[in-house]
Design brief:
The protein has a five-stranded parallel sheet, with helices on both faces. Helix 11 packs antiparallel against helix 12. It has helices at about 20-25, 30-35, 65-80, 85-90, 105-110, 145-155, 165-175, 180-185, 200, 220-230, 235-240, 250-255; strands at about 10-15, 40-45, 55-60, 80-85, 135. By secondary structure, it is an alpha/beta fold. The radius of gyration is 20 Å and the shape is globular. The protein binds iron/sulfur cluster (2 copies). One iron/sulfur cluster binds near residues 199, 200, 208 and 211. One iron/sulfur cluster (SF4) binds near residues 192, 200 and 207.
């Protein structure tokens, strides 16, 4: 009897800190089951062994920051049946997208002894700006349970069951007292994508938006509430200029407070 071929999984890295790839290695209990179901064909963080493509599912971490990245992501797309981006760098440009608001040549001239050796783009951009992406998984880093759900969904040919509502809903579900209402602590939860389990409010801290914008975020309304709680324009600008600074909703709101 011929054995059914296992789907090939590839994990690719672009400009990033590797934290989202580590989330896969951090799956411990679930990892053995994943390895049973898929052939890990390309995952340099875990193994030097490489199996040639094409690949059934590619997970892509990191943003596009160099001309080489632009060429490489095209090749990854061509070699992949499904391509899923993981984390704030891949889905929004990451913390390195803070350069997008400044003159990159100034940075290069100050940081590098030989700027002429540096070949870079003037912006850090998400993968979806360059190739078609089948699904975006948010977070900085991503939630490992959501990652397992996304891998399972693509292997089973269904849509991932990962909600797109705000962190506030997670506070309600776990019974966390709202830090904005109870203590007047500014919180980005009402406009931030769910996925973390509302960790920060459960420790009496405001959310700072590491999962990026939820669907249809009302950023202007939240900024007005932050002002009423005493936040200055500079504070509001800075809170939108975090790991997801170049996500459209956060970028536009930050620009309002830059004027
Ligand atoms: S603490 Fe933040 S995330 Fe939680 S309900 Fe209040 S505003 Fe929403
Ligand atoms: S900053 Fe917000 S989205 Fe990130 S872990 Fe804290 S509560 Fe969750």
């Amino acid at each position: 009897m011929t054995r059914k071929r296992k789907p090939k999984l590839a994990v690719w890295k672009f400009a990033s800190c590797d934290g989202c790839q580590l989330s896969l290695l951090d799956c411990e209990d679930e990892l053995l089951t994943v390895v049973d179901e898929v052939e890990i064909a390309y995952f340099l963080e875990a193994s030097r062994a490489v199996v040639k493509g094409p690949y059934d599912l590619s997970l892509v971490e990191g943003s596009i920051t160099t001309p080489l990245d632009v060429r490489r992501i095209q090749q990854v797309r061509q070699a992949s049946k499904f391509l899923v981006t993981i984390g704030a760098c891949a889905t929004a440009g990451g913390i390195q997208a803070l350069r997008n608001f400044k003159d990159i040549n100034e940075f290069i001239s100050v940081v590098y002894a030989r700027p002429e050796y540096i070949e870079t783009l003037d912006k850090s951009t998400p993968i979806a700006n360059h190739v078609f992406v089948d699904f975006e998984l948010r977070g900085c880093p991503i939630n490992k349970r959501q990652l397992i759900e996304v891998i399972s969904a693509f292997l089973q040919g269904r849509k991932p069951n990962t909600p797109a509502h705000s962190v506030c809903i997670e506070c309600k579900l776990r019974g966390t007292v709202c830090v904005m209402v109870a203590h007047g602590t500014p919180c980005l939860g009402p406009i931030t994508h769910t996925g973390c389990g509302a960790i920060c409010p459960s420790y009496h801290r405001g959310c700072y938006g590491c999962f990026g914008p939820m669907e249809t975020p009302n950023t202007a309304s939240l900024s007005a509430w932050w002002s009423r709680l005493g936040a200055k324009e500079q504070d509001i600008l800075r809170v939108f200029r975090g790991f997801n600074a170049y996500a459209e909703a956060f970028r536009k709101e930050s620009e309002v407070h830059e004027k």
